[in-house]
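ZP: hey, is the 4-nitrophenyl phosphate complex queued? I don't see it on the tracker
AM: it wasn't, my bad. submitting now with these inputs:
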Amino acid sequence: MSQKPAVLFVCLGNICRSPLAEAAFRVEAARRGLDVEVDSAGTGHWHVGEPPDRRAQETARRHGAEIGQQRARQVTRDDFRRFTHIVALDLPVLSALRRLRPENGIAELALLLDHVEGRRGQPVADPYYGDDDGFETTWADVTSGAAALARKIAGP
Ligand code: 4NP
């Protein structure tokens, strides 16, 4: 790949799952010394400009990551040219991204858990309407996905 790797994680609101995926991937990339751009976005517009959900911030903090500085934004068609990898957190998001993708997009589009052995096709469940435990499950899932993706990008 000639272009520097750039990874965009996308969920619905960009306040719960994709901010945590971004944080988990930053941890993995740093651990491996990967030179990679990382960002997150949502397919929806409802939370644009807001910081991540308080429960997501607390979950990240419990695992040593600070995400309070992140601000939600909506994914754009231009993202398909800026990023080498666009990673959907669930299937409706993947479908929305397929519809949005421009002809000249370069980004490889996949579901996050497709990168994890034995979890192909599985979504990272939306914790927004659930209790705090759901966010711990989200963190575990995004950490598995981020580790597997970082391993692939790092190469042999
Ligand atoms: P996320 O969670 O997609 O993981 O950020 C959600 C956040 C907000 C809404 C839905 C999901 N919402 O409907 O406002």
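AM: back. The longest strand covers residues 6-11.
ZP: great, adding it to the tracker
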